[in-house]
Specification:
Blueprint: E1 3-5, E2 16-21, E3 26-31, E4 37-44, E5 51-56, E6 60-67, E7 81-84, H1 90-100, H2 106-120
Antiparallel strand pairs: 1-2, 2-3, 3-4, 4-5, 5-6, 6-7
Helix pairs in contact: 1-2
Length: 122
């Protein structure tokens, strides 16, 4: 189940973001001044080959693989980077999110489910 990390790093000039985490998922939700969700990044398969599904009004949807920077033998771990990654199983991601989201504010769940479901309908 996702739990909030209250010390989420805020980026100057960006909308406020909230961070929720579990062993399987990281979720970042950008919120407006009233606290309503306006964008998200859902990072899933953290234990295997992590990916990130992002939606914002400015850029729409993106799906990326996350290179954790650990594949460099005899060197310090590099910084994680996002790499373009096309196809993915929308229904599996949606189901995993639903299992983990019971502790989230209902408006966040509705917002994210709505955006991810739009992909499923394509």
């Amino acid at each position: 189940m996702l739990r909030e990390i209250p010390t989420a790093r805020q980026v100057p000039g960006d909308e406020k973001r909230r961070w929720f985490t579990s062993p399987n998922i990281d979720l970042f939700v950008w919120v407006n001044d009233g606290g309503a969700p306006i964008g998200f990044q859902l990072c899933y398969d953290k234990q295997l080959h992590e990916h990130a599904l992002t939606w914002t009004a400015e850029t729409g949807y993106s799906h990326m693989a996350i290179d954790g920077g650990e594949s460099r033998p005899a060197r310090y771990k590099g910084a994680p980077i996002l790499l373009a990654n096309g196809a993915f199983e929308v229904s599996r991601i949606l189901e995993e999110f639903r299992l983990e989201s019971r502790s989230l504010p209902p408006e966040f769940v509705q917002f994210i489910e709505g955006k991810v479901s739009q992909l499923e309908a394509r």
